[in-house]
């Protein structure tokens, strides 16, 4: 039933580890996004994929690597985690290719804490 | 670079009050979004508009393109409206730019 789902919901890990967050949407949408919400609750886009192709990469460190095996999935892999990576990561999707000119549907978020 | 400013940052209201949250931006846009983030963290899209006014239940969103300003109104506010309301704008080929949000608390 869930439109946009993310796993895990919570992730606590040590500095230097590598971790992945998965996102799936069952809405048949063509575009998927990753957003980061920092401790001040400020949302910022990280990546956008359209039909498995990267269309936005917003000055994100190379340690972050999105992977889209098909248009229903957009996973986020993070290497060598740092304290500053602690945040809530939201996945979202939208129907077409107009990005911010369409309604976006958000996942529940993954709360990452790096110790 | 588009700057998005929301006001107020925090708002406390009594149940039943009419509430207005404002969003101003600095460059021409093609679309503006209002999002609601619940206390539990989930984000829901409320409106997307590029001109005029939209209404959904007790929520009304307006935009004035010339003045680069949008307002979100809540009529007959209720404690369940307590949330953070976030404005985001789309301009040209740039990705969505978000405001810092307005935290609303409605007290019974």
Can you describe what's shown?
The complex is a heterodimer of chains A (115) and B (108). By secondary structure, chain A is mostly beta strands. Chain A has strands at residues 4-7, 10-13, 19-25, 31-37, 43-50, 53-57, 64-70, 73-78, 87-94, 105-106, 110-114. In chain A, strands 2, 4, 5, 6, 9, 10 and 11 form a 7-stranded mixed beta sheet that branches. In chain A, strands 1-3-8-7 form a 4-stranded antiparallel beta sheet, with no helix packed on it. Chain A is globular and about 40 Å long. Helices cover 0% and strands 58% of the residues of chain B. Chain B is mostly beta strands and 108 residues long. In chain B, strands 2, 4, 5, 9, 10 and 11 form a 6-stranded mixed beta sheet that branches. The chains are: A mainly beta (115), B mainly beta (108). The interface between A and B is medium-sized, with 23 and 22 residues.
Number of strands of chain B: 11
Beta fraction of chain B: over 45%
How confident overall, as mean pLDDT of chain A?
A: 91
Tell me, briefly, the overall form of chain A.
globular
Give the largest chain-chain interface (CB within 8 Å): A-B, 23 and 22 residues
From the structure above, extract its key features.
heterodimer, A: 115 residues, mainly beta, four-stranded antiparallel beta sheet, 55% strand, B: 108 residues, six-stranded mixed beta sheet, 0% helix, globular
Compact description:
The complex is a heterodimer of chains A (115) and B (108). By secondary structure, chain A is an all-beta fold.
């Amino acid at each position: 039933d869930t439109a946009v789902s993310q796993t895990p919901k919570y992730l606590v890990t040590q500095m230097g580890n590598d971790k992945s967050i998965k996102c799936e949407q069952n809405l048949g949408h063509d575009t998927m996004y990753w957003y980061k919400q920092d401790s001040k609750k400020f949302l910022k886009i990280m990546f956008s994929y359209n039909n498995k192709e990267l269309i936005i990469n917003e000055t994100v460190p190379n340690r972050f690597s999105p992977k889209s095996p098909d248009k229903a999935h957009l996973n986020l892999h993070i290497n060598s985690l740092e304290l500053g990576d602690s945040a809530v990561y939201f996945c979202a999707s939208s129907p077409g290719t107009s990005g911010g000119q369409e309604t976006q549907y958000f996942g529940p978020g993954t709360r990452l804490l790096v110790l | 670079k588009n700057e998005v400013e929301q006001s107020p940052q925090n708002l406390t209201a009594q149940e039943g009050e009419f509430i207005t949250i404002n969003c101003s931006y600095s460059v021409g846009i093609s679309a503006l979004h209002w999002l609601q983030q619940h206390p539990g963290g989930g984000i829901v899209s409320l409106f997307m508009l590029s001109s005029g006014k939209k209404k959904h239940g007790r929520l009304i969103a307006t935009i004035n393109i010339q003045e680069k300003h949008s307002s979100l109104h809540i009529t007959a506010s209720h404690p369940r409206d307590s949330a953070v309301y976030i404005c985001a704008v789309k301009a040209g080929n740039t990705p969505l730019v978000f405001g810092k949000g307005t935290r609303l608390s409605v007290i019974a």
